Amino acid sequence: MDWGDVIRLANQGNLTPPRRVEKSREEWRELLGEEQFFVTRQAGTERPFSSEMCSLFQPGRYACSNCSTELFDSATKFESGTGWPSFSEPVADDVVAYHRDGSHGMVRIEATCNVCDAHLGHVFPDGPEPSGLRFCINALSLEKIAD
Fold first, then answer.
1. How far is the C-alpha of 130 from the C-alpha of 80, rounded, in Å?
2. Cα–Cα dist 131/43, whole Å
3. Residue 4 DSSP label
4. Average pLDDT for residues 3-32, to the nearest whole number?
5. pLDDT single digits (tens) 49-83
6. Fewest CB atoms within 10 Å of the CB: 17, 32, 79, 120?
7. Is the pTM of this model over 0.85?
8. Averaged pLDDT for residues 111-124
9. Cα–Cα distances in Å, from 72 out to 24, 92, 134?
10. Radius of gyration (C-alpha) of the chain in whole angstroms
11. The Cα angle at residue 51 between residues 56 and 46, in degrees rounded to 5
């Protein structure tokens, strides 16, 4: 997957997810802490450098903190200097969805969990090879799991 694929999916529709997890707003609010609900269900952003996850590079996978879908592998994690965990690609093309985001006076591509619609962060075309992508992800959207 590259930037052209991300733009195409954002404009024409995302891939079918491997499964779906759907809950009401009230159910999500009961399951998640206040900050996690704000970030993942209200498309919020945590403060940069607010999580130790930025400097965590042990082997393993990162799953959606809302539905436990595996999203990223530590082998694709890199230090972007932005203050948020950054990855060059998801573990599978169908686990992340892409949406045009025109908030805050700019146009970006929002990344969400394709299984439960949790806001993850944004994806940018300034990452390392081979994908050239930088998935800039809120740590509150992720949970580190073992390989």
1. 16
2. 25
3. H
4. 97
5. 999 998 889 999 999 999 999 999 999 999 999 99
6. 79
7. yes
8. 98
9. 26, 8, 12
10. 14
11. 135
Long-range contacts of 9-12 (CB under 8 A, 24+ apart): 9/97, 9/98, 10/98, 10/99, 10/100, 10/109, 11/100
Handedness of CA 30, 37, 64, 19 (dihedral sign): positive
Q: What secondary structure letter does DSSP report for 80?
A: -
Tokens of 134: 């930088």
Q: Which two tokens stand for residue 144?
A: 């580190």
**Residues that are catalytic:** 136
d(CA 37, CA 59): 27
Q: Which whole number is the average pLDDT over 31-39?
A: 97
CA distance 25 to 118: 11
Tokens of 86: 């950054």
Residue 117, token pair as written in the block: 């619609």
For residues 141 and 120, the answer to whether their CB atoms sit within 8 Å is yes
Integer Cα distance of 96 and 90 in angstroms: 7
For each of the domains in the chain, give its residue range(s) and CATH number, in order of start.
3-145 (2.170.150.20)
